[in-house]
Hints:
This protein is mainly beta. The protein has one helix spanning 46-55, and strands spanning 2-7, 13-18, 23-25, 29-30, 35-37, 57-61, 71-74, 78-86, 93-104.
Amino acid sequence: MAITKKRNQQTESRLLLESDAPVELPPAEVDERAVVLQFENVRPFIPELLETLRAGTTAELVPVMRDGSTFALHTQTRTFWVKLWHASSEMNRVERVQVLSCLPSTRGLQVLIDEPFADDKFDEDDDPDMPEPA
């Protein structure tokens, strides 16, 4: 895990969390004003994100981003894609949280099918919605 030092417009610096593996985040101080939103419709879910960061959690790398610094944080009902900047390498204070996306959580969701699908029960000729071969 690497934490890259980035300088902002002010005099202090922040440490961008970067990794190629999941990162265990310890409980951390984080102020609501440290959150930057990509989309305003995410705002109602921010208290849940802050609660999770304050309690400590696992940050999982989002592989489709390919930047090594975008992580999925799973809360009770949502999954947030974020970039995190910490005040120090101890990661006990979050200076900035950039929220890129927020989706309803599907963790632990199971799909139950009453009757298993068997190949021998399906005949394409019986399906009226199937187009005729050309």
